[in-house]
Amino acid sequence: MRSANRKKKGQSLVEFMLLGMIFLLLAFGAWELGRIVMAQNILVGAAREAVRVYALDPATGGGAGPARARAADILGSAGITPYQVLLGDDGVTVTATVRYTYHVVVAGLIPGLPNDVSLNSSTSMRREY
Prior knowledge:
With 129 residues, the chain is an alpha+beta fold. Helices cover 52% and strands 22% of the residues. Strand 1 and strand 2 (93-103) form a beta hairpin. Helix 1 (2-54) packs antiparallel against helix 2 (64-77). It is rod-shaped and about 85 Å long. The mean pLDDT is 90.
């Protein structure tokens, strides 16, 4: 009777380890996905703020320099580096695009997953002057 009970305990341990690894992988994957969504949301906010400042008259504190500085403040406070802020102006509307390459931490645990995810956010606004 003792031998059969020991085998069941060993089997339970093996099953727990197999399922535990899958559970941890899913938990870390969900955590990583949450971080990617958070980074994308920060990029959207930075692009919105940059285009808002870029659309203002340079005499009142607007323009390309202050727009890049505003985006840098937002992205820097979130620890997002390195990034690109691209500004465009066609005379009627101004556009701000923020790009960032997110390094996936969990990707090394699953073969075939990409190590980097490219995140972009672009916002347009009518000029205010």
